[in-house]
């Protein structure tokens, strides 16, 4: 996404903060396909993804003023939007895990390499990109959740359906592997 488009989304959020429904419709039209695909890469349950998407945009409608107040000249609108969606997904997975009819072991979570991962590998340099590509998929998944999505250990644990200790050890193993590959 170009800087102009990101700035446009920030302007749309400022308009949404003033209850501009046309701006909300435009933001939804521009960002919902991208956001839906990104959520689907993290969760195979289409119903849950649809619920999270709806909850995300409801939150955007209600909280656009906080974005406009904190980041009045920022182009980080899509990052802000993704942060909301990722946290809503974690919350939804937690709720689903607490339901007695859905054991945590059967939660529909998928980890598929996405465009964000490929972009990171392509923009950080050939050496680091190759090191990231050489990581085991389970280590890349933890890095993606914690670094690209900005999730905490606990949120990553819920998202990936892993114990927190496993998330910590995989993050440590990934850092060690990257350090060794780059030295």
From TrEMBL:
Lineage: superkingdom: Bacteria
A GO MF term: DNA binding
Domain spans labelled RNA polymerase sigma-70 region: 27-99
Keywords assigned: Sigma factor, Transcription, Transcription regulation
Every RNA polymerase sigma factor 70 region 4 type domain range: 127-178
Keyword Cell division included in the entry's annotation: no
Keyword Transcription: yes
GO biological process, alphabetically ordered: DNA-templated transcription initiation
Sequence similarity: Belongs to the sigma-70 factor family. ECF subfamily.
Entry protein name: RNA polymerase sigma-70 factor (ECF subfamily)
Source organism: Catenuloplanes atrovinosus
């Amino acid at each position: 996404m170009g800087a102009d488009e990101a700035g446009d989304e920030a302007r749309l959020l400022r308009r949404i903060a003033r209850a501009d429904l046309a701006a909300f419709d435009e933001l939804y039209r521009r960002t919902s396909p991208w956001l839906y695909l990104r959520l689907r890469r993290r969760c195979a349950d289409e119903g849950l993804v649809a619920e999270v998407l709806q909850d995300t945009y409801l939150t955007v409608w209600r909280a656009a003023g906080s974005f406009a107040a904190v980041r009045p000249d920022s182009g980080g609108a899509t990052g802000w939007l993704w942060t909301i969606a990722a946290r809503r997904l974690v919350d939804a997975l937690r709720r689903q895990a607490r339901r007695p009819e859905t054991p945590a072991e059967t939660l529909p979570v998928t980890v598929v390499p996405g465009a964000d991962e490929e972009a990171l590998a392509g923009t950080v340099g050939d050496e680091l990109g190759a090191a990231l590509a050489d990581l085991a998929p389970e280590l890349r998944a933890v890095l993606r959740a914690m670094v690209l999505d900005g999730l905490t250990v606990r949120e990553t644990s819920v998202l990936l359906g892993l114990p927190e200790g496993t998330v910590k050890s995989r993050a440590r193993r990934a850092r060690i592997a990257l350090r060794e590959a780059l030295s």
